Amino acid sequence: MIRPPFMSMSLSLGLAAMLALAPLAAIAQEPRLTVTGEGSASAVPDMATVSLGVTAQDPEAGAAMDRASRVAAEILSRLDGLNIAPRDRQTSDIGLQPVWSRHDSDDRHITGYEASNSLTVRVRDLDSLGDVLAAVTEGGANRLAGLSFGLQEPGPVMDDARRDAVSDALARANVLAEAAGITLGPILSITEGGGGDMPMPRMEMARMASAPVAAGEQTISAQVTVVFRLGDETPD
Known about the structure:
By secondary structure, the chain is of the alpha+beta class. The chain is built from 4 helices and 8 strands. The protein is elongated, with a radius of gyration of 32 Å. Pfam families: SIMPL.
């Protein structure tokens, strides 16, 4: 029986596809071990971020905004005197909302307006942090929202955390392989995931200007997933 040419071509293409997929199937069936390693590294913070704001009330909306703007301008002027660079202060929010009469009043109405202006300040010289806090409160800041510490150059600390995570993954893989009585083959892949700054408590700042401030340590975490090819069983 003579096969039509198109049938012979289809058979040839099908055979070629099977031969091409065979190595991939063999690789997919190779025994593997996947482990996740976690690491961290710490350093003393060299930067602080202060969140502060101004609120002002007045029966007139425009007057409330003007008062808040004047105080904000005074705060920025004081920051100039402390050599806080323009790049290290940013207006994060400007707001205006009505002030209502008592909630339990039958004749509830607007009695005035409250304007707000929020500012975020980075302090790169921690020795001057107390002076900055005193200056902004003396300048009229009446809403101090929080304080956090950080690193100006986190890259080297992040690299140390990555090394720690890889070492942790290797140690875990060796323990698992030893317990299972098998040998570890070469590393097939390393994937980085997770990681970042570990959450740090934020200090309430209602009394920040007069409170002692301790920077502590900044901890950065890293996570890696490592895939190993498995070898033969270890001899008894």
